[in-house]
């Protein structure tokens, strides 16, 4: 997405962290509108009803956007290449052994690189910048309803190949639970602060002690099935992603209409 202006005095470096305060300080409608348009493209690529990110939402939340851009001196335009939105959420998660965990976790809520700039390393630069600024490891980020393209990205770039789907459509990886179950990981990384295993099952509805197990999750594509140890083998093209998202939507609708409640 192009902006017919030099954004270097406004944004600074080519990788920038934008929280609510920084968004307010920008005070440039061109930046706001272009970022919103980029978010609309992201929603269209994921076949969503509307964008997950907007400057108006960012100002009124504690979410943070990491933006990558560049300035083309020959054409005198600034180009927004891609972005990622993160935020903390309190999650109840189940590992592959159906043990329940609860805690606040950093989540990847939206992630997109412009279709004309994909497969050039911009996505990994953005993700690596998040890891650097937030001081975390790749397995310590939960993915909010990721596409197969994002799962394949995590597999190829960070060797995270066994996604564990939750009933809330968040995805985590076994490496995170390995950190939680020991004082330190094999690489010396500690488990995220604030995480624990509840001593009793979580209560739902009328007070029955039942936990939403992973087996109740809705399957949308092969990596959502119960053979969680299989590496992700996904069609990473735009057409493949759109077709997969459409299949997910149909599967969810059929499940809701024909199945019993998950709990």
TrEMBL record:
Keywords from UniProt, A to Z, are: Acyltransferase, Transferase
Known catalytic reactions: L-lysyl-[alpha-tubulin] + acetyl-CoA = N(6)-acetyl-L-lysyl-[alpha-tubulin] + CoA + H(+)
Q: Which HAMAP family match?
A: mec17
Which enzyme type, at the first EC level? transferase
> Listed GO cellular component terms?
microtubule
Entry-linked Pfam families: Acetyltransf_16
State the InterPro entries in the record: Atat (IPR038746), GNAT_ATAT (IPR007965)
Q: Which Gene3D superfamilies match?
A: 3.40.630.30
Biological process per Gene Ontology, one example term:
neuron development
- What does this protein do, in the record's words? Specifically acetylates 'Lys-40' in alpha-tubulin on the lumenal side of microtubules. Promotes microtubule destabilization and accelerates microtubule dynamics; this activity may be independent of acetylation activity. Acetylates alpha-tubulin with a slow enzymatic rate, due to a catalytic site that is not optimized for acetyl transfer. Enters the microtubule through each end and diffuses quickly throughout the lumen of microtubules.
Q: Which residues form a coiled coil?
A: none
- The UniProt record gives the binding positions of acetyl-CoA as 111-124
- By what name is this protein known? Alpha-tubulin N-acetyltransferase
EC nos: 2.3.1.108
Q: Which GO terms describe its molecular function?
A: tubulin N-acetyltransferase activity
Would you identify the family this protein belongs to, as annotated? Belongs to the acetyltransferase ATAT1 family.
KW Acyltransferase (keyword) present: yes
Residue span, N-acetyltransferase domain: 1-177
